[in-house]
Amino acid sequence: MNFNFNYLENGIKKQKILRIKLFLNVKNKEELFQKIKANEIDSAFLNPVYIVSLFQIQVACHNVMNSLSNNHLKTKNLHTELIYYLYPGKSVKKALEDLGIGSNNVQHILECKFIDSNENSNQNSNEIENSNENSNEIENLNENYLIQGEEQKNIVQSLNQIIDLPKIKKLYKINEKELLIGSLEDAVVLAMSTKEF
């Protein structure tokens, strides 16, 4: 699944594509984690039990693009910036620990990869937005890793089956009263969005 996000670079409008893939029952998580620590992977690998919807990722990406446009990244790269903006607190280290794949109990991986839209010069960027039919060209970019797991075609449905409600409530400090007046997605996005205040 792919989404387009705009940003400004020296006053010029540019675009990044966010490619999202979900893998269940990953067998080589430890190898992938070591490659991340060695800076050999240019993707964000998330523990998907904390991701309630793709809208949650889109909100975080919007914040990443704002930071990029203003030359004000809080982390080393766009992928760690994405993890930071998904987290409800201000600690980059805790964000990576809690939402990343370093924990022993991570079985599934949600991969989020920012791609410059000019890497796919064969296509008009408007054709790529929210499109799965054109995703083969994006997916065939040279990668120096392979995720050994079951790739899910219906990411939304699969996320709904694997989220961990008690962990989400604890991480985002959501109480039952909040869920009486709004959705879980609302509460999570609110916690992410208000951490800067």
TrEMBL record:
Record has Ligase as a keyword: no
Superkingdom as given in the UniProt entry: Eukaryota
Organism, scientific name: Anaeramoeba ignava
Keyword tRNA processing recorded: yes
One protein family per Pfam: CGI-121
Family statement drawn from the similarity comment of this UniProt entry: Belongs to the CGI121/TPRKB family.
Coiled coil: none
Protein name: Cgi-121 family member
Record keywords: Nucleus, tRNA processing
Cellular compartment(s): Nucleus
Main location as per UniProt: nucleus
GO BP, sorted A to Z: tRNA threonylcarbamoyladenosine modification
InterPro entries cross-referenced by the UniProt entry: CGI121/TPRKB, CGI121/TPRKB_sf
GO annotation, cellular component aspect: cytosol; EKC/KEOPS complex; nucleus
